[in-house]
Amino acid sequence: MDADSDSTYRHLVNSVADYAIFALDGSGRVVTWNTGAERIKGYSAAEIVGRHFSMFYPPEAAANGALSRKLEIAARDGRVEDEGWRVRKDGTRFWANVVISAMRNGQGKATGFAKVTREVDQARAMGDALRDSEKSFSLLVQSVTDYAILLLDPDGRVTSWNEGAERIKGYKAGEIIGHSFRRFYPPEAVAAGLPERELETAARDGRFEDEDWRVRKDGSRFWANVVVTALRNDAGELLGYAKVTRDLTARREAENQARKLAAEEAQHAEATRRSEELASLNERLRRSNDELRSALEAAEDSRHAAEEAASAMAEAYRQLDQFAYIASHDLKAPLRGIANLAQWIQDDAADELSGESAEHLRLLQGRVQRMEALIDGILAYSRAGRVTAVPEKVDTGALVREVIDLVAPPEGVTIVVPDDLPTLETELLPLQQVFMNLIVNAVKYSGATRADATVHIGWRDTGEAIEFFVRDNGPGIAPEFHERVWGIFQVLTARDKNDGTGVGLAVVKKVVEGRGGRVLLESTPGEGATFHFTWPT
Fold first, then answer.
1. Mean pLDDT lowest for which of 37-41, 70-74, 316-320, 520-524?
2. Could you give the CA distance from residue 342 to residue 275 in angstroms, rounded to a whole number?
3. pTM, to two decimals
4. CA–CA separation, 31 vs 49, rounded Å?
5. Helix (H), strand (E) at residue 222
6. For the chain, which domains are there?
C-alpha cells in the first residue's frame, strides 16, 4: 500500500463514528484509536494508546486468562467474535458485538490484531438473553428427577410434564397431558373434593401446600409434599397453576422409625434413673459398712460375731458387684438393639433421608454410645477404691512416666515431670488410677484449646502427707464450678460437644478420700487449672 492509500485508509477508519476500530499489538496493548472508539468507550487516544485492552471488560469477563485465550484463538483461526458487556471510561456498561482479527506479516505470523466493537441495542440483547434464559430454564425443569414439576390449566388439566413427574407418578407425558390432575389423588380425597379445594386456595391466596397420600399410575400410594402456585398475567388474570410434588415416603418411614426409637430411648432413660438409684444404694451401703466396722471394733469381746459381720460385708459386696453387672448387662442389651436398628436405617435409607432426618439419626447413634459410656462409668465409680492391697514401695516418678506412656498424649502436648518425685510405702494401683484420671483430664482440655499445651506434675511434703498436683494451661474453670467438677456425671460443656462421661474426677475424689486424703481445685478462666490431692504416708 503506497503512502497516499495508507493516509486515505487511516482517514477513512478515523472518520467512522459508529464503530470502535483500533489495532492491538501482539500482547493486547492498544496501538491505534479512532473517532468511534473515543465516542463509544469514552477515552481519548492519548489516554488509551499503550494500555491493555482488558480495560474495556468487566472483571468477571477478564478473569482466569479469558482475554489471552481470545487472542490465541484469533491468532490461530484468523478471527474471534462474541457479544457481551463492556465498560466505558466512566464505569457504565454497554452491550457490544466484538470482532478480533489477526494481522499477519509476509511470513503469515500474527503480529497484532484489529478489533472492531459495535454497541448493540440493549433491549434486543436482553431479549435474546431472556429467550436463552427461558430455554435454559425449560431444560432445567425437564431434567429435574427428584421433583414432579408440572403446569395445569385453570381447570386443573395437565399442560406440561417433566422427568421427575414421570419417575414419581409413573405416567409418560403422552399419557397424562390434557388429563385432569385429580387422577393423582386417592378415591376418598377426590370424593371429599380435595383437588378442587387446592386450586381454590391457590387461586385465592396465591399458593397451597400440603402433605398427604397420592397415587401412582400403578395404583400404589406414596406420601407427598405438594405445592400449588397460581400463575397470573400482568393484568391479574389466572393463567393456570404450577404444581411441584416431592415423594417423602422414605423420609416419613424413617421419621416413624425414629419416633419408635425415641420411645424406646425414653424407656431406657427410666432404666438410667434406676441405675442412678443403684449408685445411691452403693453409697448408702458404704456408709453402712463404715458403721459396721465401728461396731466390730467396739465388740472386741466377740470375735465370732466380728467374723460373721465381715463375712456378711463380703457377701454384700459380692451381691452388689453381681447386681451392678446384671443391671449393666440388662441395660446394654437393648442399647445394642437400638444401635443396630439405627445402623440398619443408615444402611437402608441414608440416600433418602433429608438433612434434618440424617442429623436426627446421627444424634440418636451418638446418644446410644453415650448411654453405654455412662453405664461403664457407673460400674467404674461403684468399684473405685474398694479393693485394697498390701502396701509396697512405689517410685511415684516411675509410676507417673508409665501412666504418661499409657495415655500417649497427642503431638503438641508437653508433660513436665520433676526428677525428684518421692518413693512411698503405699498401694500401687489406686495411686496409679488417680494419676491416670488427672493426667487424661489435663491432656484433653489443654490439648483441645491450645497449640502449646503443657501439663506440669509436682509435689510437696506437708509432714502428714504428700501433696501432689497436676497443672495444665487449658481454658480454666470458673470458681462457681470448683466443687461441682468432683461430682459424678458432671461435665461443664454441652453433652454433644464433650465425649467424656463426668466420672473420672469423681473416681479421683472417691479413691483419695477413701484413703483419708483430700482433693482441691485451683483455677481461673483463661489461666488453666491445677488439681491437688494429698496421699497419706
1. 316-320
2. 24
3. 0.37
4. 6
5. strand 221-232
6. 3-120 (3.30.450.20), 144-247 (3.30.450.20), 252-383 (no CATH), 392-536 (3.30.565.10)
